[in-house]
Design a protein that fits this description.
Layout: E1 7-15, E2 18-27, E3 32-37, H1 46-54, E4 60-70, E5 76-80, H2 82-99, H3 107-111, E6 117-121, H4 126-197, H5 202-215, H6 219-236, H7 243-263, H8 267-287
Parallel strand pairs: 3-4
Antiparallel strand pairs: 1-2, 2-4, 5-6
Helix pairs in contact: 4-5, 4-6, 4-8, 6-7, 7-8
Length: about 290
Amino acid sequence: MIKSMTGYGRGQAQIDGLSFSVEIKAVNHRYGDVNIKSPRLLAPLEGEIKKQVLAVLKRGKIDIFISQEHAEHLANKPVVDKQVANAYMEAFKSLKAYSGLSGDISLEFLAAQKDVLVLKDLEFDQDTLWKCLSEALSNALTAIQEMRQKEGIATQTDIENRLTLLAESIGGIEKVAALVPVEWQQKLRERLARLEENGGDPQRVAQEIAIFADRCDISEEITRFNSHLNQFHDLLQQQEPVGRQLDFLVQELNREANTMGSKSNDSTLTRYVVAVKAELEKIREQVQNIE
């Protein structure tokens, strides 16, 4: 079953007061390109994040947004900056000696001074960080995969309908192509008869018949086109990402259609070829979004 490259997923996880929220957005891209925006404390884990993402999402431009969320009472804790506190006490002693005034420094007064007490974020070990983050990331990946699969089903249905139209058009081309040499042969025979009446060279006309029959023969192109269609159907049933292979097959189908068009000397055949190329262009647009 094919999957779309576009999608969105969100996941959360919480362990021991540590909480992460992960959002994943993906759009079309030739390769798997992962971009991460996260708090600095997660920088050492970016390699593991990419590894987990690319194990699930094989292709696409993938943007990952990670935010850290704490329960408010667990987000940080007050810490004494001893150097600042000592500096204040030394300054107060110096001021007392200089001024000759009496008085004691109370704990409340000292604690009220700027930067003596500071709020410091809680610290977590790497194992706890990764355990919580990996769970949130897994939840987000599950959500985006569900969306990509739903879009993939709709895309596959559309492509299969168009492949049916292509097969019908190729069937029409095959019927018309079989008649074209016969019609032209009849016209050339009539020309040969007129030349014989006027003393022309019948051998040259016979050569023209043979050359034309060879130039307008598209049986090989039709065979290859049908073979590519069969491969296309097979690839649509694969479980692995097949977007690049499908893109290549569309190019090959277009190549065969262009060759048929260049060999066409019949208006009906030309109309069939134009219809084929129109459907191939619509399929190409759909294939660009397949993983």
